[in-house]
User: What shape does this take?
Amino acid sequence: MLSFLSRQYAKNYFVITGFLVCFSLGDSALSHAEPAEKNMPNVTYSNPYFKGNKEEKNAQIKRLTSLFGVECDFCHNEDLTVFTDEGKKSKEMMKASVALGVECDYCHVDRKRYKENEQQARKMFELCEIMGTECSFCHAGKGKLTPKGETSKTAFVTRNWATEGTKRCLECHIEKKLFALNFYGWQVLNALKGLKGM
Assistant: This one.
């Protein structure tokens, strides 16, 4: 019985001693470790607005924040996992920039001032809202249009879109149906086809 208690005591002694040694070594290692630097969160830059390697993308971000005079937390939370309302708006604008093949400074002077292009951009955003589309529905880069965009361009010219505005589109189109034509729109299209000899 005495040898059993001795073995049990020895076993417990080694286990407890092992825990104490591991704990003291771990504590010592932690106390000598340098404080971790606060690095930028590991982000993937899934937004197609950002192009190039990580350094090039970071440079784009610096240009954006400089242009608008804001810090990262204007659009993001600290971990870059949640967008603020301004961030959500910026994300939509970036989609438009990609579709048009332009940078933010194409329309923006800074956060409060705009270039002349901005007036047309506002009309286009309103048109996208009315028709339930995105810029990429018609635009495929700087100076390039999709086939739907080419058709829209003809309608813009024939229907005086530049002066009459977006609401005029609803004379021919069904709202939020990806440019589906109403009866009057089909009549106009057929007349145009007749003029073109199609």
